[in-house]
Design goal:
The protein has 177 residues and is mostly helical. It has 10 helices and no strands. Helix 4 packs across helix 6 and helix 6 runs antiparallel to helix 7. The radius of gyration is 15 Å and the shape is globular.
Length: 177
């Protein structure tokens, strides 16, 4: 099980003030998604580092930009991080992981397997394990036990309701086909 991802931890620590009271819930969500993604499509050290960056930034725009239309600011944060880290060559894959993680349907043929695994991993977590994409109930339960919810799903529900009140015709702008 992935329990220590230094890049993920460093990014979240750097944005702790923006995350505020949601910091632990987001950290646990990120670790759950990282673990589910790695179980679905394990790889080498470079793949794990790309996953760490994508998972750190994938929803971060909710808090840093104060919006529920958070994919553009989350992607921008990740791109800036990759440039500063000298890893701009990873931008296409990391950007696709963030952009596609709320797709309702499978990613297009030819897309990196890591992008589809990331999409599925986020769905596993957001659905509380109802959707498992072939992972065993036990594996999902072990990850969820290691990284408890800490109010993350309640916070998503609150944000969704707030968005629905202000934008009833566009309550979930991050969803993609």
């Amino acid at each position: 099980m992935l329990t220590a991802l230094p890049t993920l931890d460093a990014v979240l620590d750097a944005h702790a003030s923006a995350l505020g009271d949601d910091a632990l819930g987001y950290r646990h969500h990120a670790y759950r998604v990282a673990n589910f993604s790695w179980l679905l499509a394990p790889g080498d050290a470079e793949a794990l580092e790309k996953l760490s960056i994508a998972v750190a930034f994938h929803d971060l725009g909710i808090w840093t930009a104060g919006t529920f239309d958070y994919l553009p600011p989350s992607r921008a944060l990740a791109r800036d991080h990759l440039h500063q880290a000298g890893k701009a060559a990873w931008m296409v894959e990391v950007d696709a992981m963030i952009e596609c993680h709320h797709k309702l349907v499978r990613t297009a043929a030819g897309t990196s397997p890591a992008v589809e695994a990331f999409r599925r991993a986020d769905w596993i977590d957001v659905s509380l394990g109802v959707r498992r994409f072939g992972l065993s109930r036990r594996a999902v339960r072990e990850v969820m036990t290691a990284f408890p919810d800490a109010g993350f799903h309640r916070r998503l529900a609150e944000l969704t309701l707030a968005r629905l009140r202000c934008h009833p015709l566009d309550p979930l702008p991050m969803m993609r086909w």
